[in-house]
Amino acid sequence: MDKILALAKKVAEEAEVYMVSSEETPVQFESNRLKNTQYKQSQSVALRIIKNGKTGYATSTNMENAQKLVDDAVATAEFGTKAEFQFPSARTFPEVDIFDAAVEKVSLEQMTQLGEELISKVTQYSSEVICEGGVTKGTYTLSIVNSRGGQAGFRQSVFGLGIEGQLIRGTDMLFVGDHRSSCHPILKTDEIVKTTIRQLELAKHMAKVTSKPMSVIFAPDGVTGSLVLPLIPAFNGKTVLEGASPIGKKLGEIVFDKNLTICDNPMVPYNTASRPCDDEAVPCQITPLITKGHVSNFLYDLQTAARAKTKSTGNGQRQGGLPTPSPHAFVIAPGSVSFEDMVKNIDEGIIVEQLLGAGQGNMLGGDFSGNVLLGYKIEKGEIVGRVKDTMISGNIYQLLKDITAIGSDAKWVSGFLSTPSICCANVSVACR
Amino acid sequence: MTTFALKGKLKLLMTDLQIVGQQMAELLKKQNADYIEAHLEESQFSSISYRGKQLESISKTTSVGGNIRALVKGGWGFVSFNDLSNLQEKVALAVKQARFVGKEVSHFYESKPIVADVEAKIIENPATVPLSEKKQLLDEYNEAIWSTSGIQTSNLGYSDANKKTIFLNAKGSFITQERADVTMRAVAVAAKDGEVQQAGLSEGSRDDFRPIRKLHKDIKQLAQRAVEMLTVPTLKGGEYTVVLDPILAGVFVHEAFGHLSESDFVYENAQLKEIMTLGKVFGGPQLNIIDSASRPRLRGSFKYDDEGTPATKTYLIREGKLTGRLHSRETAAKMHEKPTGNARAINYRHPPIVRMTNTYIEPGECSFEDMIADIKEGVYCKNWYGGQTSMEMFTFSSGETYRIHNGKIAEMVRPVMLSGNVFDTLMNIDAIGDDLDMNQGGGCGKGGQSPLPVSNGSPHIRIQKCLVGGK
Questions:
Q1: pLDDT per residue over A211-223, tens digit each?
Q2: Residue B267 pLDDT greater than 60, yes or no
Q3: Chain B residues whose beta carbon lies within 8 Å of the beta carbon of residue A320
Q4: Are strands A33-51 and A151-169 parallel, antiparallel or unpaired?
Q5: Domain boundary, last residue among B198, B229, B260
Q6: Buried residues in A227-259 as b, exposed as e (16+ CB within 10 A)
Q7: Do A430 and B469 count as a contact with CB atoms less than 8 A apart?
Q8: How deeply is B30 buried, as exposed, middle or buried, from its count of CB atoms within 10 A (0-12, 13-18, 19+)?
Q9: How much is the pLDDT for A362?
Q10: pLDDT over 50 (residue B150)
Q11: Is the separation of the CB atoms in B355 and B342 below 8 Å?
Q12: Domain housing B354
């Protein structure tokens, strides 16, 4: 890395070298039995330079061809965008626990046993279910150095465990399942099994729905696709700077329900999205986004922050290219209503667990729409059966303005989102 | 380490993938597995993106890597890597993993080894078009968007890739293939009084930069559409008679039926096998659905798939009846059918799985005018935004939507999401147009592998009782 930095400094004013490597061992199950095990090694190095005030960028999987990397970065810098930021000098980073050496020590035999246990418990409940499952362990290493003396890095362990069950009757297909991830090994299958069996139980009978607006409870998994995806571009400092975020001019104003509080939190110990620094060596922090309904902050990387005349929030993340503002982990504060009470208070409505088609359409405008892949009907305060051939749609800026109830049942849906169930009234429901 | 030694190694890494391939071939032959193969890959990408009026990023990427896949007693091992050293260890690990998993019998359709060197038939290589020329073009496209009044921001994404892959197995196959891909995405965002609307387009091309040069008119229209969408009404949700343009109908056939025909969902699932019995009626007698990697010059085209099977043309549905499905060598062997050349991986980091290539509905005889003539109240959907399927259920969304009123295209409404159940919806296609067109702008995602270059297409089609999301 130092060699690349030294070569780059010869031709550019400033330079930054970013390196990631990972090792991953997935064990996969298909049709209720072990199908394959894999070992994936990967590495890549990225060089960002500032030459004549402009940004150049190149990446490679080859750690040794430093000159080619520098040449590529120089070639792009000629056309690059004006660099309005400075690379960070040496900083101190918050302590966040994201490495557990126990992950690496979990053996293939143990991983296989976990997968087999998941599948046998679910198929014991219903022998017709055909399961796919996955158990994964891995480590991820990141390091960054720049020409201003800044450096950062971390090593993270990751463990994942999940199951997807398929129940087919005639041409009717039901999909159930759950997934957990952590920086610790997950050696117990109970919670995933419990969730999966509960889904099978609730979906035993079909229920009838008629097309009309009604109350909808978004269970934690359902919150992701419908309510949270449109918030990602809205809180992106870049969208705000362009004037394309519907909430961009509403900093400090109340836009959402007064009970809604959301922050970006990469500091949760052993959560897979947690980390001490972002992808440009800026310390990570907890950033409140919505505080009791008020818009409280937007997310920034170095370049966007410089343009917006503010500070980076430590959200510069790379998805293969230059860093861009992106949330680490959305944490939605739980409310006080239990899921059971939420259901009890609904005369007619549906629960959405999984939505098919999320992220299509005018997300920037807050619109969402989808087919209820896994959901249940509520009649007179009781769950009466599974919902099918049903679409819901709405706009999050209308729905989240007046939330009926926020659940006390917060859970991590993936490393990216922790949310309780959220109940909204008057959601458009269309069905056959 | 001396400079000389370093240089020597680089030559091996960057240009002589063939030599690594030959070393690998020797290693594979020595292994004791039911089947063993390797992939090596070298690629170069460049990308340029704009946000708003400014160029946002420009970058170049080079990548070298490979993998080994081994089958022992029905169990698979897979090792992928960037680091090309210690190949012997990696090969041994893949076999060890397969041995750990395998407890049954291997099913794998083996054929005679093939040795081939397939060069790309490049018309104009996007990788050799100078950066300055690409930037000039993108500037023109951005100007086309920004010269429209009411535009709040824009988004352009351009990328190209040159890729060389080597497939080899222990039986002596050694296939080298090259391809050049280019994709271009444009989004215009209009805003007024706190309302935001967006319109987008995606274009792709294979071995030819030229289609990317011709988007001025489309991009101008896109910007105008985004502004117009701010003032148009939202459709009421419910069932409608829907007419799809060739582009959106292509997305429909990919999502609604294409994925269901991928045999890796079916081959070990007795109930799905029952649903997918060949000969079963899925649609009217006018319905023919094809997947063909052998159609030349499309994004999903190739000579050999990632298991070295030659590309084929597969009728999935012929005259409304199920006649074929997409196979890898494993699914074909398990189902006692022939491989169709549909085992594909997005890159060396993943094993090949059953994927579509170029999927389309064959044209019929109905003109567009006749198709809408007897629709009293309906919806005309054009262009695409995306799509997703769970096999039985599917969704796909339009980029542009109009009402049909008394046989005429009437006012614009906001784009919609359409959804349905494949078993009903294919039956409800009651008119197929005469105007096949292929959509080259999409990529397909499955099993964590995205985006895979595919194309899909159709003539205009009419679907009765299609579920549309709305107010």
A1: 999 999 999 999 9
A2: yes
A3: 61
A4: unpaired
A5: B229
A6: bbbbbbbbbbbbbbbbebbbbbeeeeeebbbee
A7: yes
A8: exposed
A9: 86
A10: yes
A11: yes
A12: 238-468
Tell me chain A's radius of gyration from C-alpha atoms.
Answer: 24
Closest Cα of chain B to A380: distance in Å?
A: 24
Which of B58, B194, B469 is nearest residue A393 as measured by Cβ atoms?
Answer: B469
Token couple for B290: 């094809």
Domain A2-200, second-level architecture? 2-Layer Sandwich (3.30)
- Same domain, yes or no: B128 and B194: yes
Shared domain check, B106 and B22 = yes
Residue A27, both tokens: 């064990």
Which backbone phi and psi does A417 adopt, to 5 degrees?
Answer: -140, 130
Do the Cβ atoms of A58 and B52 come within 8 Å? no
Domain end position, chosen among B184, B208, B229: B229
Q: How far apart are CA A317 and CA A323, in angstroms?
A: 5
**Collapsed DSSP state (helix, strand, coil) of residue A305:** helix
| B62–A369 CB contact, under 8 Å | no
- Which segment of A98-102, A363-367, A418-422 scores lowest on mean pLDDT? A363-367
* Chain A residues inside the 8 Å CB shell of B49: 321
Give me the residue from A37, A39, A361 closest to B101, CB to CB: A37
pLDDT value at residue B225: 96
**Which residue on chain B is closest to A364 by alpha carbon?**
B196
Q: Are residues B62 and B138 in the same domain?
A: yes
Strands (E), A94-213: 130-146, 151-169, 172-182
Average pLDDT over residues B342-348: 97
User: What is the per-residue pLDDT for B13?
Assistant: 41
Whether B262 and B114 share a structural domain: no
- Most distant CA pair in chain A, distance: 73
Q: What's the whole-model pTM score?
A: 0.94
Q: Do B157 and B243 belong to one domain?
A: no
Give chain A positions within 8 Å (CB) of B387.
357, 360
> Which residues face A172 on adjacent strands?
A169
Same domain? B288 vs B308: yes
Chains A and B form CB pairs within 8 A to the count of: 252
